[in-house]
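ARCHIVE CARD
CATEGORY: sequence design from structure
SOURCE FIELD: tokenized fold
FIELD CONTENT:
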């Protein structure tokens, strides 16, 4: 396992359209997945797309804490871990909006460290793709879970969240934004 270097906004790998993965069982893909998990956990982040670690391939991983946005933040780490969703590995994902409803929510990205902004995303989506063992994944998601999937899959089409923002008024450094709260 190895920590991978994360590309930051401006690096050309983040602007390109990533290629589909032909064989999810390719040992190189398996190793990439393991390294991406380690890199995401180290960062830490809730999601990571392969182009962010310089591999222009259609692969994302994410782990959405269940309590995020829907429940008050737990005050201890045990509760936090108990609420964690399993890690999802999604190869060649396809997203379909299940309703036209969109919601604004604050997003950050490991490729734009220490910054965030309000981004409109579909509230309800269906996503399909392949898992780490080539198994079919077909799920519906709402709220923060849906937001994370949309954010990560955008990376596969060369889209970073500021490109989705309706206004840059809410965009900035987290440390400064916190001062205004
Ligand atoms: Ni991102």
């Amino acid at each position: 396992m190895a920590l991978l270097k994360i590309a930051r906004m401006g690096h050309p790998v983040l602007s390109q359209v990533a290629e589909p993965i032909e064989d999810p069982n390719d040992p190189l893909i398996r190793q990439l997945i393991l390294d991406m998990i380690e890199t995401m956990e180290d960062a830490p982040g809730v999601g990571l797309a392969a182009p962010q670690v310089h591999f222009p391939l259609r692969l994302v991983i994410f782990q959405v804490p269940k309590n995020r946005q829907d429940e008050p933040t737990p005050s201890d780490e045990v509760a936090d871990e108990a609420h964690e969703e399993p890690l999802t590995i999604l190869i060649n994902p396809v997203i379909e909006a299940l309703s036209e409803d969109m919601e604004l929510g604050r997003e950050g990205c490991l490729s734009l460290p220490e910054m965030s902004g309000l981004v409109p995303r579909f509230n309800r989506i269906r996503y399909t793709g392949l898992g780490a063992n080539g198994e079919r994944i077909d799920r519906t998601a709402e709220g923060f879970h849906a937001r994370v999937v949309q954010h990560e899959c955008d990376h596969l089409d060369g889209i970073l969240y500021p490109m989705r923002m309706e206004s840059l008024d809410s965009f900035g450094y987290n440390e400064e934004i916190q001062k205004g709260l």
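CARD ANNOTATION: The two ends are 40 Å apart (CA to CA). The longest strand covers residues 112-122.
SHELF: design records, drawer C
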